[in-house]
Amino acid sequence: MATASQPLVLVVEDEPAQREMLAYNLSAEGFGVAKAENGEEALILVKEQTPDLIVLDWMLPNVSGIEICRQLKSRVETRAVPIIMLSARSEEVDRVRGLETGADDYVVKPYSVSELIARVRSQLRRTRPATVGEVLEYEDIRLDAESHKVFRDGNSLKLGPTEFRLLSTFMEKPGRVWSREQLLDRVWGRDIYVDTRTVDVHIGRLRKALCLHGGGDPLRTVRGAGYALG
Q1: CA 229, CA 98: separation in Å to the nearest integer?
Q2: Domain 133-229 in CATH 1.10.10.10
Q3: 3-state SS, residue 189
Q4: Nearest to 66 by CA among 97, 37, 89
Q5: What is the C-alpha separation between 156 and 45, in angstroms, rounded?
Q6: Confidence of residue 5 (pLDDT cuts 50, 70, 90)
Q7: Per residue in 198-215, is it b (16+ CB within 10 Å) or e — as a string?
Q8: 214: alpha, beta or left, given left = phi > 0 and alpha = psi -120 to 50?
């Protein structure tokens, strides 16, 4: 599984050697990895913890990858999760079918592992840019995920690791309202028990750090719902 700051990739592949090879290489590149050997197991894992990206084999026993993709893309909770479909089918009609079902990318077997990882990074750059080292900007706030530095109006800010992860989460989706439970899952991780009031404490610290050199409070408290940036 992933730590709170790692993107979680779910590998759904029924062939053990392929599954382990993918898991090993993704882990070596710094990704958290979950594994499923069939579609039913994949759906259970996704319910337990929504991954940041799914690598999904087309030819699975019982329920095909195409059907799993269709189900995941029809659900509000998983619609935005990028899916990279793996298939030995190289015909254009199959590629089109996979993409029309909702897959975000389509990779034909046999494939280059380095190319697949590049495609994983490309998809995550779109949905979770901070986790792949992108620089995020919102108004006068600049967050450099790679160097772990934050600036506001040119002033360097000192943030603790939790405040940094909170700000990364907000800056990846400005305007989105995050509930305390969602922030706990994203920032602290599901396996760690933390009281929801802890979120309020760290939001307070983040606000203080962001406003240290002046400027208005960019974080918005939404009564009964949670917090948002902007």
Answers
A1: 35
A2: yes
A3: coil
A4: 97
A5: 40
A6: low
A7: ebeebbeebbebbeeeee
A8: left
Which pTM does this prediction carry? Answer: 0.73
At residue 53, φ and ψ (nearest 5 deg) are: -160, 150
Sheet-wide strand order for 149-152: 135-138, 141-144, 149-152, 155-157
Which of 66, 77, 50, 57 has its CA nearest to residue 102?
Answer: 66
Distance of CA 84 to CAs 60, 63, 122, 204, Å?
15, 17, 11, 38
List CB contacts of 140: < 8 A, sequence separation 6 or more.
Answer: 152, 153, 215
**CATH 3.40.50.2300 in the chain, residues?**
8-127
Mean local confidence (pLDDT), 126-151: 87
Kindly state the helix (H) or strand (E) to which residue 210 belongs, with its residue range: helix 196-210
- Model confidence at 67: pLDDT above 70: yes
Q: Give 211-222 pLDDT, tens digit per residue.
A: 999 889 999 999
pLDDT digits (tens, 9 = 90+) for 157-200: 999 989 999 999 999 889 999 999 888 888 877 666 778 888 99
Contact 11, 36 (CB under 8 A): yes
Q: Please state which CATH number belongs to domain 8-127.
A: 3.40.50.2300
Structure token pair of residue 85: 């479909």
Residue ranges matching CATH 1.10.10.10 in the chain: 133-229
Residue 212 phi, psi dihedral angles, 5° rounding:
-55, -40
Residue 4 has pLDDT above 60, yes or no: no
